[in-house]
């Protein structure tokens, strides 16, 4: 019997041409809020996850649209979830990163244990950073596109800080910040600056460069002793207790952060 010719292999980049491209399994579980990505990877490796009745052992296994995915025998719903954004009051002494350094903990170690079950399954991304000793408003989201939107200098989303300075502040001293100044990494846009008292300066910037507010004030002879972020866009920290969080509403995300988001988040 003559041997049938092998079917031509379709190149990977053309296999899903004109179709919805599948997500990989661990990320799909994370994005849907079923399990954080690291936990999803462990569950897959342990054989707890199946696609269309077959156990998947690889985190990068593609999940074609319409697949039936089960975790521990229970069907889970995948797909892009609604955009969620958390406002968190960062305390001093913790890093805005996922990994601790020496004995210094991270914001995730403070935030994640507080999350209720309906929020605990997502992988959370910090929207920008605050220095380890800086305090105030730090946003977290499950939507990586929001991170890019809020941190891009092209968005010009204002961030309002209150700096406690060592030297005596005055309108004359801070005038260069209002006009725009040149730092060691290039020109800085003009900032809105209010001298609240001789040792307290409010600075609003539309960029987010490394240590920017500290460097701007240091350049005019006002070294910063403490820095606190009060607002991002129109989202204000208000009286949120230190070390706690709240879930933003759809309207706050849309109006306060100028971001449409995905679907409707619960308020």
Please tell me about this protein's structure.
By secondary structure, the chain is of the alpha+beta class. It folds into three domains: 21-76, RNA-binding S4 domain (Structural Genomics Hypothetical 15.5 Kd Protein In mrcA-pckA Intergenic Region, Chain A); 85-153 and 234-256, Alpha-Beta Plaits (2-Layer Sandwich), CATH 3.30.70; 159-232, 2-Layer Sandwich (Alpha-Beta Plaits), CATH 3.30.70.1560. The chain is 23% helix and 26% strand. The chain contains nine helices and 17 strands. The strands form four sheets. Strands 7, 8, 9, 10, 13, 14, 15, 16 and 17 form a nine-stranded mixed sheet that branches. Strands 3-2-5-6 form a four-stranded antiparallel sheet, with no helix packed on it. A hairpin with a 2-residue loop joins strand 13 and strand 14.
Mean pLDDT: 89
Proper CATH architecture of the largest domain: 2-Layer Sandwich
Terminal Cα separation, in Å?
Answer: 67 Å
Query: What's the Cα radius of gyration?
Result: 23 Å
Describe the SSE topology.
Layout: H1 12-15, E1 23-24, H2 25-31, H3 37-45, E2 49-51, E3 54-55, E4 62-63, E5 69-71, E6 74-76, E7 85-90, H4 107-111, H5 117-120, E8 125-127, E9 135-141, H6 144-151, E10 159-165, H7 171-179, E11 181-183, E12 186-188, E13 192-197, E14 200-205, H8 212-219, E15 224-232, E16 235-236, E17 245-247, H9 250-256
Parallel strand pairs: 9-15
Antiparallel strand pairs: 1-4, 2-3, 2-5, 5-6, 7-9, 7-17, 8-9, 10-14, 10-15, 11-12, 13-14, 15-16
Helix pairs in contact: 2-3
């Amino acid at each position: 019997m003559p041997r049938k010719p092998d079917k031509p292999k379709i190149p990977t980049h053309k296999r899903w041409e004109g179709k919805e491209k599948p997500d990989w399994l661990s990320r799909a579980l994370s994005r849907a809020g079923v399990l954080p990505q690291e936990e999803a990877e462990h569950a897959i490796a342990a054989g707890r996850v199946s696609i269309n009745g077959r156990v998947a052992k690889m985190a990068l296994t593609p999940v074609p649209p319409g697949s039936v995915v089960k975790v521990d025998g229970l069907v889970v719903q995948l797909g892009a979830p609604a955009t969620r954004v958390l406002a968190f009051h960062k305390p001093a002494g913790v890093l805005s990163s996922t990994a601790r350094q020496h004995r210094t903990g991270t914001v995730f170690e403070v935030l994640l244990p507080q999350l209720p079950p309906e929020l605990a399954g997502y992988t959370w991304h910090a929207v920008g950073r605050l220095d380890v000793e800086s305090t105030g408003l730090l946003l977290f989201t499950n939507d990586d596109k929001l991170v890019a939107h809020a941190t891009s200098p092209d968005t010009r989303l204002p961030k309002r800080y209150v700096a406690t300075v060592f030297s005596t502040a005055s309108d004359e001293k801070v005038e260069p910040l209002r006009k725009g100044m040149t730092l060691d990494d290039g020109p800085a846009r003009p900032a809105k600056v209010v001298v609240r008292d001789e040792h307290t300066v409010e600075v609003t910037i539309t960029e987010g460069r490394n240590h920017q507010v500290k460097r701007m004030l240091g350049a005019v002879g006002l070294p910063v002793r403490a820095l606190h972020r009060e607002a991002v866009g129109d989202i204000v920290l208000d009286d949120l207790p230190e070390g706690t969080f709240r879930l933003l509403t759809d309207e706050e995300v849309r109006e306060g952060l100028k971001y449409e988001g995905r679907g409707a988040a619960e308020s």
